[in-house]
Design goal:
Layout (H helix, E strand, L loop, with lengths): L1 H18 L5 H19 L6 H17 L6 H26 L7 H18 L4 H26 L3 H20 L4 E3 L5 H4 L4 E2 L2 H28 L7 H23 L4 E2 H19 L1 H11 L1 H6 L4 H27 L1 E3 L5 H13 L11 H20 L4 H31 L1
Antiparallel strand pairs: 1-4, 2-3
């Protein structure tokens, strides 16, 4: 009996030793689990934002070596404002790409919204706030018309929006008439969108700290909802590590910005709008419907999803974001002209969404991918400017990065399909 009891005690001790958590504590276990999940995702072809971050790091390193002023607070502050107009348009493009379509009219819609605002405010004396609202609504209406036409007729969206590109550009020229260009009030509401800075250090750090705090609350809410219905969810440790990393990056950015003029209002609005739309995509029923339509239109119909409503709403969102982006671009130069909403703007916005990691095949991507993509494009433009590199080389480099992004997207999709078959 004693020998049997001793053997049982030894067995219990062995089991306890086996179940003992690995050295390093809870944080080490979370990191190890995170690394294992990352390896599993990479093996399945889901690379996430890693390639984009590596490209951005390479771009910054090269230009810093070529010119030590590239990463100066002044240049980074200017860069943070320059990305906003095109970035907002690219965020709208992300929504269209998620359903597997393409919007070619965003450049013309952005120019039309800026022209409408300028004519209403400068020529007709309408209050800025009212002219701004009407300009944004014009983008919403243009996008909704295109979306409904595409959804009902089932003509490919790129054909409908290609017609829209010509139509809205023509309407913009009619609005401007023979004026050519209109200068905006440099002290007005729209001009302040890209010229106002929070120059108090404490205010900057406080506003920047709100981002990680809100992200933590949203992550905890999502974890609680998924856990309640038995779905896979992140641990609190993983959420803490993720939000800690975001907080470090945000505070470092605030430190750099405070060394120049402070936090730009344009950058703050850009982050708030992008974050709000990301919550819409990942934490609402409508967002899940968008991903479902992108995964397969016919399957979405059989799941009782109103495909017409989703497609119309997505194009309306794209038009709205194009209008808002156009106003920020007009604010940056405090004028509107017949060249507003040029073809280069359209190409940069689409390239930003794709380079950032949004799939051309639909169903994969996020609003933050547009932020990373436009940051790469604008970093290349800024680096070219301070190193006196010809603009032709800039187009070649951006085109090469775009081609590489599409190749990675195609290979990633192929790897995911092979992994599902396996």
């Amino acid at each position: 009996m004693k020998e049997h009891r001793k053997r049982a005690d030894d067995t219990d001790a062995a089991v306890a030793t086996t179940r003992r958590p690995p050295p390093g504590g809870k944080t080490a276990r979370v990191v190890a689990g995170w690394a294992t999940a990352a390896r599993r995702r990479f093996g399945a072809g889901d690379l996430g934002p890693l390639p984009v971050i590596l490209v951005l790091a390479a771009v910054w390193t090269v230009f810093q070596l070529l010119n030590r002023n590239f990463l100066s607070p002044r240049n980074l502050s200017n860069l943070s404002v320059d990305i906003v107009g095109t970035g907002l348009i690219a965020v709208g493009i992300v929504f269209v790409l998620l359903i597997g379509e393409l919007d070619l009219s965003v450049g013309s819609i952005s120019g039309l919204a800026a022209a409408l605002f300028a004519v209403l405010n400068v020529h007709n004396g309408m209050p800025e706030w009212l002219a701004l609202i009407l300009a944004v609504l014009s983008g919403t209406a243009a996008g909704a018309i295109q979306g409904f036409s595409f959804a009902r007729t089932r003509v490919p969206a790129f054909v409908v929006t290609l017609a829209g590109l010509l139509i809205w550009n023509g309407v913009m020229l009619l609005v401007l008439r023979t004026t050519g260009s209109i200068d905006l009030d440099e002290n007005g509401l729209v001009a302040q969108l890209t010229n106002y800075y929070f120059d108090n250090d404490g205010v900057t750090y406080g506003l920047v700290a709100l981002g990680p705090g809100l992200l933590f609350l949203v992550s905890c809410r999502d974890r609680r909802r998924r856990r309640a219905v038995g779905l896979p969810h992140r641990s609190l440790g993983e959420i803490g590590i993720r939000n800690g990393a975001v907080a470090v990056v945000a505070l470092a950015a605030a430190y750099v910005l405070n060394r120049f003029h402070g936090l730009p209002l344009a950058l703050l609005l850009f982050i708030v709008i992008t974050g709000g739309l990301d919550v819409l995509l990942h934490s609402t029923h409508f967002g899940r419907e968008i991903y479902a339509v992108g995964g397969g239109t016919e399957a979405a119909r059989r799941a009782s999803i109103s495909v017409v409503r989703v497609q119309t709403a997505v194009l309306a969102i794209s038009g709205t974001m194009a209008a808002i982006g156009g106003l920020f671009l007009a604010s940056r130069i405090t004028s509107v002209s017949q060249n507003s909403g040029s073809s280069v703007l359209l190409l940069n916005a689409i390239a930003a969404a794709v380079i950032g990691g949004t799939s051309l095949f639909g169903g994969r991507g996020s609003t933050w991918s547009a932020v990373l993509g436009v940051l790469i494009i604008q970093s290349i433009s800024s680096g070219m400017a301070i190193t006196d590199t010809p603009i032709a080389v800039q187009f070649v480099i951006i085109g090469g990065v775009l081609f590489a992004a599409t190749v990675i997207d195609a290979l990633s999709r192929r790897a995911q399909e092979a992994h599902r078959r396996a």
